[in-house]
Write a structure and sequence with these properties.
single chain; alpha+beta; 3 helices; UPF0045_domain; MTH1187/YkoF-like
Length: 98
Amino acid sequence: MIVAFSVSPLGVGEDVGEYVADAVRVVRESGLPNRTDAMFTSVEGEWDEVMDVVKRAVAAVEARCGRVSLVLKADIRPGVTNGLTSKVETVERYLSQD
């Protein structure tokens, strides 16, 4: 499964990068395949391990601000691995045919 999520502190102003870094640090330390872009962090693994990482990432931000917004999107597809890479490679293959 791949989960793309965004965790944002509420009530701390516009500069949230330091808080978001706390969440991303949890994801990267998990050892699961992951990617971070300007809007979301994606993490790949089994349901329980991915959801545990999301929960801990939220807790890391919540510990510093008290109120957190979480946006989450999941691609639940049993038996598929390396989806973070293979999905992008498929799109790039089609784009290269242009």
